[in-house]
Protein: ROK family protein
Organism: Arsenicicoccus bolidensis
Amino acid sequence: MATNSPAQPAGASLSGQVNATQETLRESNLALVARTIFASINGISRAGVSAEVGLTRATVSRLVEDLLSGGLVREEGQVSGGPGRPATRLVPASTLCALGMQVNATYRICRLMGLDGYIVDEIHVPGEMVDSDPREVLSALGNDARELLARSLAGRRLVGAGLALPGIVSEREGLLRRAPNLGWTDAHPASLMGLEDLVQLEVLGNEADLAAFSLARPAPGRTSGPSSFIYVSGEIGIGGSAVIEGEVMRGLHGWAGELGHMCVDPRGPSCPCGSHGCLERYAGWRAFEVGAGLPHGSDVDDFLARHRDGDQRAEATLAAAAEALETALVSVVNLLDIPTIVIGGHLAELGAIILPGVEEGVRRRALSGRFDGLTVTIWPAATADDPGRAAAGAAAAVLDEVVKHPASWLGR
């Protein structure tokens, strides 16, 4: 026969619930205050935070003190303009930092980023990574990371690490499924880098997704530029990503945005991905090199010189790339209803001779312009030739979680 459990002291359960609710409320308010400080471009006072979030100045002041003691924010200068004494300005601190890493077909890079969004230090190693051994490359990347942390981590706390790779990534499994331009299949980067004793790999993502994240969030917790856009990265191949309201659209399995492998001609040349007529076969940098008869390792200036001289191969290559890019972007704009497109890499560097025509073609053919009068705009990314944009995005994605959940980092 069942027996009743011992009676609980009156109010014990209610007290526990109240304490839990109060702690949850404090964490929520702490995150709200942190997001407000980090979102401010030039810093903000306690009074400014209070006015923006709707909490009392006393409550905001207590929460700010927690963030100051935890090393997440710092006081700098003064904010003036109102009555009374100038107020102290609150800005993100740089004590906490994250390691961002990236492997691409022609280089590997490590960047150490502070919570304020500034790059503390980096190691950039050029090299041929096409058809490479992932064990060798990722082991070397791990050694780069160790060197970087040994020389630049002093006086800082390492939050975590992120890695950007040019391929299909299963984030939940921590697995690179396929990187056609590297020749890699089913690689587990965390185990191959050998950094478990120093830092956890918190973020593993596609290169274009993380580059797009760095454009949408130039510093942890702060948005910039258009809130929704399509990003196209120009490397040996072509990467792509869609950002909607400041968030990267990853799809059901995290594989969304493979713009470079959109088919623009089913009868076109074969692609390492296993398909035919993919966009990157026409608009990737290797297509520019081969099409214009340039030696391997040439750069955009070499192509532009050929184009200025009226080289027919260079002109034909540019025309084919423009047509393929226009075809792909029309489909993407029609599918996603995002009329703003940001171009990076070699396509941005070639912007003056390729983007105006592509923009005009997409405007003419996109449904949004035909029926709703929306204007499709295409513009080159700032610092288009920054090879470490995805590495910065990987670090920023790690640090963004600190801004979202600051209570987890207090008292560490």
Residues 12-39 form the longest helix (28 residues).
